[in-house]
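FYI - complex with SN-glycerol-3-phosphate, inputs then prediction.
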Amino acid sequence: MKFFVDTADTNDIKELAATGLLDGVTTNPSLIMKSGRPMKEVIAEICELVDGPVSAEVVATDAEGMLKEAEELIAIADNICIKLPLTLEGLKACRVLANKGVQTNVTLCFSANQALLAAKAGATFISPFIGRLDDINVEGLDLIAEIRQIYDNYGFGTEILAASIRTANHVKDCALIGADVATIPPATLKGLVKHPLTDKGLEAFMKDWAATGQSIV
Ligand code: G3P
């Protein structure tokens, strides 16, 4: 499973990239707003920090406008992935970009049929939003399982990028279902390593080691 971080905060991205565990980055207009920085500047910086796909989202609502914005964004770096909304206009733009070999991430997916359309439009990634479905009492993970089955039924190459992840259990459950990628907020991603028994065990080992009076180097 690939791990993307869902943020436009370059300090968090730097820290996570240094672990060697980061496969890409996703951003959206809300995350750009939160960064307080000009979009193109922050996206360019992120593209230098990671080798993998960096999703940059268009904001036009018609295919022509989306494609114009995509041209601007693609010029920033080779690892740009154009993020498009799951609308008919977004799917039209997705097909054009896919035919040109541009990576695409179709976002705001809330149904299996929407995911089927994105795969048919040649999307590189489909982003089903788990947490926002959970928020309205619909089981977000069921959507991941449905998309997995449909894509496997037909051999679609579109990767399932589980988004709107809120908890460590979301990550584990997406991995069990077989999502290809999870895009995770920085704090949740850093939290995956934590277990109280790891901390307790390490503390005991350190204490016993100190009692031996030895050193390895
Ligand atoms: O990047 C899209 C998605 O991950 C947003 O998550 O928490 O705003 O629903 P959230």
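The chain has one domain: 2-212. The CA atoms of residues 131 and 166 lie 6 Å apart.
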